[in-house]
Design goal:
D-Maltodextrin-Binding Protein, domain 2, 25 strands, eight-stranded mixed β-sheet, single chain
Length: 634
C-alpha cells in the first residue's frame, strides 16, 4: 500500500492559461517500468497513477501524451536512457540527494517506502540498519534501494544486483540471497506473479519514506519542466463540488487509501449485521468495514456510514454514484448490477409465526395461505416468489420494526426475515421472542459488500484482499479481527461435519511420512497450499506444522502465520490450543485437541478438533503435524 500522499504543491496554472509557446510534449521520449500501481501494462494497456497523471498534465499543456507513446522497459534501461539521452522523461523516479543533479524534477507524484523481504522459514530480525550487516541483499540495478542501503551503512559487497525483479525473487526463494529490497506494494505484486501468493515472504524492515517524481534529462529546457510543474500543481489545486481534486481522482483509481475514502457507504437497519446503537452504526458488517478501513489506511470510520431504507441504497448503487452497500445477498438477478466483495458472513432467512396460532408450513405451497411481511426490495421477496408465493400475498414495508408491528397487530400472518434479525427486533421492541417460532426456512445465504459499477476495479480488488487480511492476519494474541467480530455478535457456531476423523488422520499420516523423507521440500509444498496438504475440493481440510517451540513452520491455509512463534497465543475463547497440541505430542506422540477457529469456507467461528502427530524430519528436527475437522452440532 502507498505509505502516504502529498496532495498540495505551490503554484497553479490558471484554468484558461495556455502552456508557454515552444513547449512540445510530443517531442519528449517517455520511459517507465512495470511497477503497479504507478505504471504498468495490464491486458495490453499501459495504465497507473503516473501514466494517467501524465495524460492529464500534457492535455493541459496543449497536446495529451497517450499511453502508447510511453516506452515500458526494465528500470535500468530507462534510467540509463534518462541519464544519457536527449529530451527524455523517466517515471516514477524516487528523488534522492544523490540523484538531485542528475535530472530535472516535476512532482511529487506520490510517496512510498522500500522494504526488506525475507523468506518465512528464516529467523531474520532487523530492528535497525546495524542489523543488516552480513546479509546478502537483492536489489534492482540503478534502483533507489541501492542508495538508501548504502546510506544506511550497508557494504556494497553485500548487494546482489539484477535487472529483473522475478530473478531476484527466485534467488530469495532459493536461498541465494537473504533479503530483497523493493517498494512493498510493487514487490508483493511481483511476488504474487512468481509464487501465486503476495504473502510468500514477510517484511522484516521498512526504509525511510521517499517521494516519486517525473525525472527529466538535463537537456530538457527549464521552460518545459516548469510548464509541467505548473500543470501538475493545477491538477492538485482544482476541486469539484465534493472538494476532490483531479489529482486525487486519479490517485483514487489505484490507491485504495485515497479512492475508498471518496465513496459513500450505505446500509440498512438489519441487526445484528448493521444497525444504529446509541446513534452510531454498529453490527458485523459495520465492524468488518471499519477493519478494512484500518487495514488499508482509509481515512473513514463507522461515523461515515449512513443507514437508509434498503430500496434507497439499491437506487444509489445502481447509478454512477461511487456507492458501497452492505450486507447484501448475491443473487443471479443482482449479479450484473454491481461489483461484489465478500462474502464476510452468512445468515438463515426464515419465516416467523405467532406460537399462539399453531401455523404449520409443510411445503412452500402452504405459504400462499397467509399474508407474509417482507422489507421492500429485500432478498426475502425473491426467496418467497421463488417458492411460488404470489406477489399479492407479500406485504412490503420499509423497515423491520414496521413489519414486526404489523405482525403484532395481526395485519400480517407471517414475517419473512433473517433468523437473528427477527429475534433482535423483537427484543428491541420489548416483544418476547418466545411468543414467535420459525415455521419455515427459506435459505441460508452469504453476505457481501456491493459497489456501484463506476467504482474502479482496482479498488474493489483491494477491498476484497483486505477482507481476506482481516480474516487471516492474527494479532499478538493469535486471534484475527474477523474472529473477534464474529464471536462478539454470534458466539461459537457448530458446522455441518463435512470432514471425517479418518480423513484427518490420513492427511496427518501422509504429511508425517513426507516430512520424514524430505522435510524442506514437504514444508515448501505445504506453504504453497498444494494437494494433498490442502484439499482442492474441500479447502477446510488442510495441514499445519509446528516445531517443538510452538513456532509455525508450515501452514497450507494461511502462510501469513508461518515463521511466528505461537507460544501463549490463544483462540478467541482464551484457550492456548497450540501449546496444548505441542505438549500433547511431546507427551503422547499423537492425540486430539479441541478449540475454536475460523473456517476458510464458512462464515463465523466454529468448534474444531485437531489430530496431531510428533515426527522426526529428514533434517533431524522434530515437528508436530496437525489437521482438523469442524465439529457438528450436538
Amino acid at each position: 500500500m502507498l505509505a502516504g500522499i502529498l496532495l498540495l504543491s505551490t503554484g497553479c496554472l490558471a484554468e484558461n492559461e495556455k502552456a508557454p509557446a515552444g513547449v512540445d510534449t510530443a517531442s519528449l521520449t517517455y520511459y517507465t517500468e512495470q511497477a503497479p500501481p504507478y505504471n504498468y501494462r495490464e491486458n495490453g494497456t499501459l495504465k497507473g497513477i503516473s501514466v494517467d497523471l501524465l495524460g492529464e498534465i500534457t492535455a493541459r499543456m496543449g497536446k495529451r501524451v497517450s499511453p502508447d507513446q510511453v516506452h515500458l522497459v526494465p528500470w535500468s534501461e530507462g534510467y540509463q536512457a534518462a541519464l544519457t539521452g536527449n529530451n527524455t522523461v523517466l517515471f516514477t523516479t524516487f528523488r534522492l540527494p544523490e540523484r538531485e543533479t542528475s535530472f530535472k524534477w516535476v512532482g511529487p507524484i506520490t510517496t512510498d517506502r522500500h522494504v526488506l523481504f525475507a523468506a518465512r522459514d528464516q529467523a531474520i530480525a532487523i530492528n535497525g540498519p546495524g542489523d543488516l550487516k552480513g546479509y546478502r541483499i537483492g536489489v534492482v540495478a540503478d534502483d533507489a534501494a541501492i542508495l538508501q542501503l548504502l546510506e544506511a551503512g550497508v557494504d556494497r559487497h553485500q548487494l546482489v544486483t539484477d535487472t529483473s525483479v522475478p530473478v531476484l525473487i527466485n534467488k530469495l526463494a532459493g536461498g541465494e540471497i537473504d533479503l530483497f529490497c523493493y517498494p512493498e506494494m510493487v514487490g508483493r505484486y511481483f511476488v504474487q506473479e512468481a509464487t501465486g501468493s503476495p504473502d510468500t515472504f514477510r517484511v522484516v524492515y521498512t526504509m525511510e519514506e521517499v517521494e516519486g517524481y517525473y525525472a527529466f534529462s538535463r537537456d530538457v529546457p527549464d521552460m518545459t519542466v516548469q510548464a509541467f510543474q505548473r500543470a501538475l500543481d493545477a491538477l492538485k489545486a482544482e476541486r469539484d463540488a465534493r472538494g476532490i481534486s483531479t489529482y486525487e481522482r486519479i490517485l483514487g483509481r489505484y490507491n485504495p487509501s485515497v479512492g475508498l475514502a471518496q465513496l459513500q457507504y450505505l446500509t440498512e437497519e438489519w441487526a445484528p449485521f448493521n444497525y444504529l446503537e446509541n446513534g452510531t452504526p454498529a453490527g458485523i458488517g459495520v465492524e468488518m468495514l471499519d477493519a478494512v478501513f484500518r487495514n488499508l489506511g482509509v481515512n473513514r470510520s463507522r461515523s461515515d456510514i449512513r443507514i437508509v431504507p434498503l430500496s434507497d441504497a439499491f437506487h444509489q448503487a445502481q447509478g454512477n454514484t461511487g456507492t458501497v452497500v452492505f450486507s447484501i445477498v448475491r443473487t443471479p438477478e443482482r449479479e450484473p448490477l454491481y461489483q461484489w466483495a465478500g462474502p464476510f458472513t452468512k445468515s438463515s432467512f426464515v419465516v416467523f409465526a405467532p406460537v399462539s396460532r399453531n401455523i404449520t408450513i409443510a411445503s412452500p405451497a402452504d405459504l400462499n395461505r397467509y399474508r407474509i411481511g417482507a422489507v421492500k426490495d429485500s432478498i426475502e421477496n425473491t426467496l418467497l416468489t421463488g417458492r411460488g408465493v404470489e406477489v399479492s400475498h407479500i406485504v412490503n414495508d420499509m423497515l423491520p420494526e414496521d413489519l414486526l408491528r404489523k405482525l403484532e397487530g395481526g395485519e400480517i400472518d407471517l414475517w419473512a426475515t433473517g433468523d437473528l434479525t427477527g429475534r433482535y427486533e423483537m427484543q428491541k421492541a420489548g416483544v418476547n421472542p418466545d411468543a414467535y417460532e420459525i415455521v419455515y426456512t427459506l435459505s441460508e445465504n452469504d453476505f457481501y459488500f456491493i459497489f456501484s459499477r463506476d467504482v474502479p476495479e482496482t479498488l474493489v480488488s483491494a477491498f476484497q484482499q483486505a477482507l481476506g487480511t482481516v480474516r487471516k492476519q492474527r494479532d499478538p494474541q493469535g486471534i484475527t479481527e474477523y474472529e473477534r467480530i464474529m464471536y462478539r455478535y454470534l458466539g461459537v457456531s457448530c458446522a455441518r461435519k463435512t470432514i471425517s476423523d479418518e480423513a484427518v488422520r490420513d492427511l496427518v499420516a501422509t504429511t508425517a511420512r513426507d516430512i520424514e523423507k524430505n522435510a524442506p521440500e514437504t514444508i515448501r509444498h505445504i506453504n504453497a497450499g498444494e494437494a494433498p496438504y490442502r484439499d482442492p475440493v474441500n479447502p477446510a481440510l488442510y495441514v499445519f506444522v509446528l516445531d517443538t517451540n510452538v513456532t509455525v513452520v508450515a501452514h497450507a491455509d494461511n502462510i501469513q502465520v508461518v515463521g511466528f512463534n505461537q507460544r501463549g497465543k490463544t483462540d478467541v475463547t482464551g484457550k492456548p490450543f497450540r501449546d496444548e497440541i505441542v505438549e500433547g505430542a511431546l507427551a503422547h506422540g499423537t492425540g486430539w485437541e479441541d478449540y475454536v477457529y475460523s473456517n476458510p469456507v464458512e462464515a463465523g467461528v466454529y468448534r474444531k478438533t485437531a489430530y496431531y502427530q510428533l515426527v522426526r524430519g529428514s533434517d533431524g528436527n522434530s515437528y508436530v503435524v496437525s489437521s482438523g475437522t469442524y465439529k457438528g452440532c450436538e
